[in-house]
Each structure stands twice: as structure tokens, then as C-alpha cells.
Amino acid sequence: MIDFEIFSVAFGNIRNQKLRSYLTLLGIVIGIAAIVSLIAIIQGLESSISSELEGLGLNNIFVEPGSGIGISTAVTNSLTEEDLDLIKGIHGVKDATGFWETSAILKYNGQETEVILVGLEPDKMYLLEDMGYVDISEGRAFTSNDMFSIGLYEDFAKDTFDKEIQVRENVELDDQKFRVIALSKPNSLASAFGGSNMVLLTAKVVREYFDEEDPVELIVMVDEGADIKEVQTEIDDKLEKKHGAKDFYTMTSENLLESTDTILGLVGLIVFIIAGISLVVGGIGIMNTMLMAVMERTKEIGIMKAIGATNNTIMSLFLIESALIGLIGGIFGIIIGTGISFLASLAAGLAGFSFNAIPSIELILGSIFFSLMVGMVSGWVPARRAALMEPVEALRFE
């Protein structure tokens, strides 16, 4: 049966030592706030990235230059248009296209900025639309007859210059006039890979006018009935044989997701260790506070024992007191952590990468239980010390 009087006495003791209690709470508050906010942010990122990568399609393979994820395409370019033709002939490949990429200076209304040019084959535009790279909101799609025509992302057209760029207006790329024929809705995945300052145009223009003969990266669509891993392996084998070296790498949406989960999992572990250190400090603070409380209330303990309080009653009183400190610190930590994660998701949304970083019910309940256990474990030694005091010795204590 629960003795609510013990809870009342324990809470009263905490309230009567306001400054000491507040300082003791800090370690728990900081630790729980760090755990809640950062784990919520990591979970939000995982969910958002997973959703975006699934939008790329589970039957697509990406062929990139270099030796692994993270190698800049600006440093190495080992792919050729012949590689694209080779891949198209592999069994199980439904279609394939490339990105011809370079940079240029875009001028408009007396202002200029550096942009990334992405050349596309007009008849392969549907691949990018299926993957979510392009979603035309105004204007029209490219045709094979387009030469000096470009497409922009809405946020770039609206926010880059003092005057918003409209469809059918002219801009300059390296002093050559181009006409804006399309605006695409902003895409967080496209922004993550290249930024909203990507300018879309035909591959022919990039090859002939900007002297980029070969594609920088390739996208392969696999037939629905084919085994994507087998197709990926065959692409690896044939390209390596043709190149004479493994100067490229292939990846699928699943590979990207696995890499992301590994990185975020490692970040989460580091965060948990750092937050755990803060909780250990907080637990030591609780233990120190409770030991001081036991010493200061020695005579009070003697009086309680003299009027019939058992060892279990004394131990319960101090354990509940330390548990309440942990619980209150945990609640404040959850509130602060939730606020931090909300501000992080709000800031990310304003930056163009939206994700939901609100803590889950499981995370909140787990944090409450964890902070409660930290308080109880930290208060065990002081509570036991109080319970084992001899009444006569305690009454004589000055």
C-alpha cells in the first residue's frame, strides 16, 4: 500500500531546499534535454531522408565517379557516354541517362551568381520526374529542339535576385543569353545533392557550348522483374573491365539508406555517450545532495525512529526524495529538449529541408523512466545510510 505521507514529506524537503535542489537538478535537466532533443532530431532526419530516398525509386541504380560516397565529381570524372551505351545493353536495364554537369555565372537584372549547370536528355526527363528531381509547376518540358532554354527551381528564381525571375524571361550564362522555359517546385533531395541553384538545360548545350563531352554521373532504371543487385553487379563488372580499374562506384536507394542509417546511428551513439556523462554528473550531484541531507537531518531521523519509524520507512523517504529530484529534472529536460528539437526542425524548414523532430511518446516515456532510475540509483547509498542509523546515536548528533 502506498504511503502518500512519505511522498508529501519528501516533496516538502525538496521544496524547503530550493537553491540546492535547483542546482542538483541541472545535471539531470541538461542530460535529458540533450538526449531528447538530439535523438528526436536524428529520428526526424532518418524518417525524412528515408522518405526522400524512397522517392528516388527502389529500382534505380546510380553510377558515380570516384572510389566511394563522398568523392567530389568536380575532382574526378571517369565516366563517358560510351559507358552509358554499354549500360543500356545490359540485361535487366529498362533505361538509363546521364547528368552533364559544370558551373557557370548566371546574370540577371544587373546581378550575378554562380550556378551549377545540369544537362539532361529531353526524352529522359521522365526519369527525373519519377524520382522527384523535377516537378514542373510553370512553363513546359524540354524538347529535342530546345537549344538556349533553361529551367530553374522556384526558390532560386524567387529568392536569388532583387527581382524574381519569371518564365519566358532571359538570363545570361557566361555571357550567352538563355530563355527560362520552366520552373520546378523546390525539392529538398535535389537541394541536398546540388543545391537549389541548379540550372537545368539540355545535354546538347552543355556538350557543345560548355565543352563537357561526357556525363558526370549516370542513372539506371531497372526492369521491375529484374534483380537490382544482380544488375548492379553486372554494371560493376562490365565497367571495371572496360575502364581497367574500379574508378567508379554504384549505389542504390537501399545503399544510400544503409549508409545514412549507419552515420546517424554513430552520431546517436556519440550523443548518448555525451548525454550519459552529463547524467552521471547529475547522479553524483543527487548523491552528494542526499548525503548532505542525511547528515543535516540526523537528529530528525533519530526522532522518527524513536516514535516508531522503521528502517524501510526511513529508506523509502530518502529514496523517494532522490527519485523525485530525478523525475522533476527529467520533466524539465523533456520540455527543454522538445523545445530545442522543435526549433531545429523549424530552422531546417526555413532552410529548405523540412523534417519532423518532435519527440515520440516512447522517447518521452523512456526519458522519464530513465531520469527516475538515475535519481533512485543515486539516492540508494544515502538512503541506506539513513536507514541503518542507531536511534540513540542519531538523537545525540549535533
Summarize the structure.
With 398 residues, this protein is α+β, with helices and mostly antiparallel strands. It is built from 13 helices and ten strands. It folds into two domains: 4-53 and 257-396, no CATH class; 79-246, no CATH class.
Present the secondary structure layout:
Blueprint: H1 4-16, H2 18-55, E1 60-65, H3 81-88, E2 93-108, E3 111-120, H4 125-131, E4 136-139, E5 149-153, H5 154-159, E6 170-173, E7 176-184, H6 188-193, E8 198-202, H7 203-208, E9 217-222, H8 228-243, E10 248-252, H9 253-296, H10 298-306, H11 311-350, H12 361-387, H13 391-396
Parallel strand pairs: 3-8, 5-7
Antiparallel strand pairs: 1-9, 1-10, 2-3, 2-6, 2-9, 4-7, 6-7
Helix pairs in contact: 1-11, 2-9, 2-11, 2-12, 9-11, 9-12, 11-12
